[in-house]
Amino acid sequence: MRAPARASEPAPRAWPRHGAATHTEAMCGRYAQSVSIEGIEEIFDIRLPTHVPWEPSYNVAPTQKAPVVALDAKGERALRLHRWGLVPRWAKDPSIGARAINARSDSVSEKPMFRGAFGSRRCLVPATGFYEWRKTADGKVPMFIHPTRSPIFAFAGLWEAWTPPDGGELLRTFTILTGDPNELLASIHERMPVILPPAAWKTWLDPETSADALLELLAAHPAVPMRARAVSTLVNSPSHDGPELIEPVRESSAA
Length: 255
Fold this sequence. Notes:
alpha+beta; hypothetical protein yedk fold; 7-stranded mixed beta sheet; 5-stranded antiparallel beta sheet; 4 helices; 12% helix; 29% strand
């Protein structure tokens, strides 16, 4: 089980079931991260293990904490737990984060919500796959999209550190960048997470990388080997978690 939030930390907002009236139809809005902390550290060449309190999750939802890879003060890659939903430094309260789980790659350098983090606080978000809902005549069918040649995706992300006005505990948050879909995702959704190949990780994290070079990374959208399969509607609720969520089912029997 995940470690409970500290008492002084702002309480996360309850996230509705997918498809509820209050859902913003964001993309990416759910993902899985079932690789161990030790596995993440090896994949991302993190030399100073931090042993963050994380258990594999098959249903990471907005306002929950999840691992991200970013540079520390010494310029070394570090693994930290951040809450999903970016809270900019100028925010009056953390509730704004629930509306900033994604950042569009075509406007991320311009939007006040994201441009500061885009300039100097970039991260990689490890994921063993993500979910999207295919619209059918019988309703929405959850699809699990996963890599076929590696154990993990690395989503392009941004992070922030927000301090409450009363001087309380620092809150670290993140958002996932989205862009145009590739051939596989085009039949499922109009957008997909920006996935960076290993060759781009250093450039993305480097604070000295120019804005033009960063935007080129986001526009490239490499043809990442991946597959999509229908899975159970149990994933619709963030209260459900476990490997059964990613087991394949027939689309006509996804419930």
